[in-house]
Amino acid sequence: MLISRISAVKGEKLDMLVEKLVRPYHDAFEPLLPEAMREKLIAEQPLEMIYFMLLHAMAEMRRHHTHPPLRNARQSSSSSV
Q1: Degrees (nearest 5) of the Cα angle 33, 28, 56?
Q2: Which of 49, 62, 71, 80 is the one with CA 20 to 30 A from 27?
């Protein structure tokens, strides 16, 4: 949600977000995606679309596979003692 809010407004925060979070992954994927297309591992699509689809998929996986907040873990462990 933070990324959505920052990316909605141009400015210094958006520039920092792109340079620190988006660009490193983009630069890492950029040579890999054309190779995967040549090897027919993924369908030929515009690189930017595939890149953002991958980022979204990874974010969704992380969102669904996170641990419960610590306070819930503490409450459940203290109530079982």
Answers
A1: 70
A2: 62
